[in-house]
Design a protein that fits this description.
It is a single chain. The longest helix has 23 residues. Helix 2 crosses helix 4 and helix 3 packs across helix 4. The chain is globular, with a radius of gyration of 12 Å. It is built from four helices and no strands. It is an all-alpha fold.
Amino acid sequence: MEPLLRYLASPTPESFGDLVRTYYRFVWDVALRVTGDREDAGDICHDVFLKLFLEPPKPRGVGSARGFLSWRVLSRVEH
C-alpha cells in the first residue's frame, strides 16, 4: 500500500516514518520551487508533516499522494 494511504488508514509512528522517508525530498523540492529559499522550504516541510501527524485527514479525500502533498505545500505558502 502507498505510504500516505497506509498512514491515513492507520496513523502509527511507523507508518508516519515511512511517509516522511518516502516523501520528504519531494515536499522539500516543491517548497523550494515555490519559495526559492532553502530555509523557507525546510520550514514548510516541517509544517506540512507536523500537520499531517497531528491532524491526519480522512483517506477518502486524498487522490494521488504527490498531488495531495503539493496542495498541502501550496496551502502552507499562502498562509
